[in-house]
Amino acid sequence: LRGHDPVAYFKENRPLKGKPEFKLEHQGSVFHFVSAANRDAFAADPASYAPQYGGFCAFGMASGYKAAIDPAAFSIVDGKLYLNYNREVHKLWSADVPGFIARADRNWPTAKSQSKVHE
């Protein structure tokens, strides 16, 4: 999330840069939060706030590869946070969100072990 608070996406419907003093490690990633309250909410229920596909681009994952993200290119769908490479990719993603989610869900178990990330 490039230092952005995952809980803020749900509470504020926008990315907010977290602070290093409110950080938490989860499944090998370090998350920063805008407040101790957001950090504690994440710690209590990380599955509700953690981005899908390890925080990689959901559109890229639908094609089977990891890609970097722009924290401002996001969607919350059925209570889950999905990120995209940039706003142009987000527009493509928006054309068939259910279809892309279904493909990304199928690809993630294999792709998550890949070390290469498309920038």
Helices and strands, with pairings:
Elements: H1 6-12, E1 19-26, E2 29-33, H2 36-44, H3 46-49, H4 58-62, E3 70-77, E4 80-84, H5 87-94, H6 97-111
Q: Summarize this, please?
A:
This protein has helices spanning 6-12, 36-44, 46-49, 58-62, 87-94, 97-111, and strands at residues 19-26, 29-33, 70-77, 80-84.
Total strands:
4
- Strand/helix succession: HEEHHHEEHH
Residue share in β-strands: 15-25%
Residues in helices, as a percent range: 40-55%
> Largest sheet, if any?
2 strands, antiparallel
Please count the helical segments: 6
N- to C-terminal separation? 14 Å
General form: globular
Q: Can you walk through the features of this model?
A:
The longest helix has 15 residues, at 97-111. The relative contact order is 0.16. The chain has helices at residues 6-12, 36-44, 46-49, 58-62, 87-94, 97-111, and strands spanning 19-26, 29-33, 70-77, 80-84. The two termini are 14 Å apart. It is of the alpha+beta class. The protein has a two-stranded antiparallel ribbon with strand order 1-2. A two-stranded antiparallel ribbon has the order 3-4. β1 and β2 (29-33) form a beta hairpin.
